[in-house]
Design brief:
This protein is α+β, with helices and mostly antiparallel strands. The protein contains 23 helices and ten strands. The strands form four sheets. It has a four-stranded antiparallel beta sheet, with no helix packed on it. The chain has a two-stranded antiparallel ribbon with strand order 1-2. A hairpin with a 2-residue loop joins strand 3 and strand 4. The longest helix is centred in the last third of the chain and has 71 residues.
């Protein structure tokens, strides 16, 4: 943007010069265009500079440097106007220079208008009104511009991630409550604390006035009439522990923070002689670096000790643990080497990378040592053969183990996006360490194994003490004992679900919240306590009065009454919503529970069929092998047995799915089982309370909307303004003057208030009609379900009256005929299958009937 301003300035001068030259040639001067651009409430004008061409080269060079100085000096103005101005301007400039997306869209053109306004106004506040102005694009689009501008530099602080930068800068630009005024002169508020200007840092108006008053009094006492003046970029600072403090911020790029601080320390020590009592302290990210280094001095030894301890526990040998532990210094060599090769400083992230590297590096050693031990158990006693065979067989697993981890960190090592300054050192350490650790492990570790692993007698296995055995047995038995499932009845399931379900808890909180809102119905504005001195308000002693007072604004009383009614209705609505949520949970629990009971009964029937078909299939196979029956009988029996087995497995899978669904409703980690075989028709409730509750719910919705409409209408009525004050002077015979003031706040812009009230009234009518429509749908759905229930009840009555009796008769007759030899095994099984199929049809009819009854009993709005 600096380059853009200079080019613009040069073009103005050259254009002016060209105009002068053309005028002298043609003797007919063209009309000079003063207006360059117009946007928002701004017009960019240019000036004619007659005689520019007659300047000497030295004078033109002076003009150039003056223009550059003016542009550079604007950084001071930006910073003084608001502490975030420079960061915002550099963000806008980076997007304007490097954004590669659609630069001709309406949103981007609006963004450029905002950028020009910031550049012209020396910040994000209007140059005249001092109010903060905002982009005419959405916050989401603005964030996308930052994320999609992948080149250039954003003003990130040391170690700051891009997302953290966006979270910090976006509210400053868009939030109306952050620095709304460059200079706030609102009555009753601190001028300095509520202004965005950056001359004061945490200093109140009273503190600043006292500071200047002290300077002035000291000057008078010393007989000096010198005006109190300060430098162009000075700030008023506060004291810490009776010592004055000023903060100098520095952003470090391209170098490590510690070396920069050391260079600054050297320069200050050599070139600056601090007076007595003055000191320089280095904080911010450097202080964080020092504290993090201190923590690393503790964390790294602990990590190394833990790694060695775990290795010892894994191998049960200090010798083998030490051999694997040698991978740590071998990996550290590679990490340091690659940091040096890439010219990266040692940082905190690099230290964390070393901790991660040490944990990964020992994996190769574990793989190799374990294989050596395995080969020894297989009888390989020659140490040379063991090492050569072990390293050759484990070369590929070792390389895969190391390369998988290294490739995972490689994208971080070459990253250039936001946060790369943290990722690169960490990943570089891991990648470099794994390279050297892998190479050296395959060379050094076999040598160490050869040196340490001499033939030795096999040690006796150490028997675990009895308390240890008991402890391990208890540890293994504890999950088994805790996993013992409990029998779950329907009532218990409903109780657990209502108690644990998060939806019910949320509805309960909503009810409690609505009850608290009833207490917030009466909410007048804050009481204003004020104090003022008016030179025009003179007491009898000819001295100005000091006035203390209270001021309170109260809306039309009907507003609070209507708000109270609305809160009461909303509380009752929340109660109905809680009942609806409980009703929904109870309905789903019943459906899932009955599904499990139904499937368990179906499973029992399939088990009977499966056992019968299995026995017949075995007998048919035996007869076929002996030549007693044909192959067709054997194949038919086998097919029937496999079909029944498949249906049995499918039923078991459906039972598992139903249990999973029930467990999700219970939202409990406790195991449960349902072994109930008592499945009876569910009773239909003649008085469905949820239907009447639905009517009351929609009526309450209508009443709440009407109350809200009344609130809006009453807000158009006059407000009551009350004020009471006391005044006195500082004269020798001062008096106390009291008074009060009563007024009405009359809404002159009543059409808007009336329109808002009318909108709320129409909205209440819409809610009323929606409630009527929903009740019609609920009644229609109930009628539809009742018709479906009638048909299912007819089927159920058939099975309970004749169907089940007929199935039992078929089964008894089949048993008698088979025992007497009147029918063969296949005829017997066919008869038994028909009886069982009729029983399953009965269960299906009963289950469908019960599900329909549950839907009717728990029909909800």
């Amino acid at each position: 943007m600096k380059r853009f301003a200079f080019i613009l300035f040069t073009m103005i001068l050259l254009n002016s010069t060209a105009h002068t030259q053309s005028s002298s040639k043609e003797n007919q001067p063209e009309e000079f265009k003063f207006l360059l651009e117009q946007f928002a409430d701004l017009k960019i004008m240019r000036y004619q500079v007659p005689g520019f061409d007659s300047l000497t080269l030295q004078q033109k060079e002076l003009v150039y440097y003056l223009s550059q100085a003016a542009i550079a000096g604007r950084d001071i103005l930006f910073d003084q106007n608001y502490k975030y101005n420079l960061a915002i301007r550099r963000t806008l400039e980076n997007i304007a220079d490097n954004y590669q997306g659609d630069r001709n869209s309406d949103d981007f053109l609006k963004f450029m208008v905002y950028t020009k306004r910031v550049w012209f106004s020396n910040g994000i506040h209007h140059h005249y009104s001092k109010d903060k102005f905002y982009p005419e694009v959405s916050q989401a689009y603005f964030e996308s511009l930052i994320r999609e501008t992948t080149t250039g530099n954003f003003p990130l602080r040391e170690g700051q991630e891009m997302e953290a930068f966006i979270a910090e800068i976006i509210p400053v630009i868009f939030d109306e409550n952050i620095a709304p005024k460059a200079v706030s002169q609102e009555a009753g508020k601190d001028l300095l604390l509520n202004s965005a200007c950056n001359f004061y840092d945490g200093v109140t108006e009273m503190e600043a006035e006292q500071f200047y008053k002290t300077l002035k009094n000291n000057a008078i006492k010393n007989g000096s009439d010198t005006l109190i003046s300060f430098g162009l970029n000075s700030k008023l600072v506060k004291r810490d522990d009776t010592r004055r403090r000023i903060v100098v911020g520095v952003n470090v790029r391209g170098r490590d923070l510690e070396s920069v601080v050391k260079d600054i320390q050297k320069l200050i020590d050599v070139n600056i002689d601090l007076p007595a009592g003055y000191s320089v302290e280095y904080g911010g990210q450097f202080e964080n670096l020092r504290s993090a280094r201190t923590r690393l001095m503790i964390a790294v030894p602990i990590a190394l000790l833990l790694i060695f301890t775990l290795l010892h526990l894994a191998f049960g040998s200090l010798r083998e643990a030490f051999m694997v532990y040698t991978a740590i210094p071998l990996s550290a060599v590679g990490g340091i080497w690659l940091l040096w090769l890439r010219d990266l400083p040692f940082s905190i992230s690099a230290g964390v990378g070393f901790i991660a590297l040490f944990g990964i590096a020992v994996l190769n050693g574990i793989v190799l040592i374990e294989h050596f031990k395995e080969l020894r158990k297989q009888g390989v006693e020659d140490i040379r053969e063991l090492i050569i065979r072990g390293t050759s067989e484990r070369l590929r697993p070792v390389l895969l183990t190391a390369s998988a981890a290294a490739m995972g960190f490689l994208p971080m090592a070459v990253s250039t996006s936001a946060g790369a300054e943290v990722q690169r050192p960490l990943a570089t350490v891991v990648v470099g360490g794994l390279i050297t650790a892998t190479l050296l492990t395959m060379i050094v570790l076999p040598v160490l194994f050869c040196l340490f692993e001499t033939p030795r007698r096999r040690r006796k296995k150490i028997s675990l003490p009895k308390p240890g055995v008991i402890l391990i047995i208890l540890l293994f038995l504890f999950p088994v004992l805790s996993a013992q499932s409990q029998q779950l009845s329907l009532d218990n399931a409903i109780e657990i679900a209502v108690k644990n379900n998060a939806g019910v808890k949320a509805a309960s909180f909503e009810l409690e919240s609505s009850q608290w809102m009833k207490k917030a119905a009466f909410n007048p504005e804050k009481t204003m306590v004020y104090y003022n001195i008016d030179q025009n308000n003179i007491a009898e002693s000819n001295m100005p009065l000091k006035v203390w007072g209270l001021q309170q604004s109260i809306e039309f009383p009907g507003v609070y009454t209507a708000q109270r009614k609305e809160a009461e209705f909303n509380s009752e609505i929340s109660g109905y919503l809680l009942d609806r949520e409980i009703n929904s949970i109870v309905k789903e629990v019943k459906k899932a529970y009955f599904e499990i009971v139904y499937l368990n009964l179906v499973k029992q029937e399939y088990q009977i069929l499966d056992s019968n078909y299995t026995a017949i299939a075995k007998a048919a196979r035996r007869n076929f092998e002996l030549g007693g029956t044909g192959k067709l009988d054997y194949l038919s029996a086998t097919a029937k047995q496999q079909e029944t087995s498949l249906q049995l497995n499918q039923t078991e899978n459906e039972i598992s799915a139903a249990k999973t669904r029930l467990k999700a409703l219970l939202q409990s980690d406790s195991a449960f089982s349902i072994e109930s075989t008592n499945y009876e028709p569910t009773e239909l409730l003649t008085n469905n309370q949820m239907i009447s509750a639905a009517k009351q719910f929609y009526e309450l919705n209508t009443k709440a909307a009407e109350s809200q409409a009344r609130v809006e209408r009453y807000k158009g009525y006059p407000d009551l303004q009350l004020e009471y004050f006391l005044g006195t002077d500082q004269g020798p015979e001062s008096k106390v003057y009291n008074g009060f003031q009563i007024g009405l706040g009359i809404p002159l812009w009543f059409p808007e208030k009336r329109a808002a009230a009318k909108s709320k009234f129409l909205q209440s009518k819409a809610i009323q009609q929606q409630g009527i429509n929903q009740m019609v749908l609920i009644e229609s759905k109930r009628e539809q379900l009742m018709q479906e229930l009638a048909g299912k009840k007819m089927q159920l009555d058939y099975y309970t009256g004749k169907g089940l009796e007929l199935a039992n008769e078929i089964r008894n007759a089949a048993n008698l005929s088979f025992e007497s030899g009147a029918i063969n095994s296949f005829q017997y099984l066919q008869a038994i299958e028909n009886a069982i199929r009729m029983k399953m049809d009965y269960l299906h009819s009963l289950h469908a009937h019960n599900l329909t009854v549950i839907e009717i009993n728990h029909l909800a709005f």
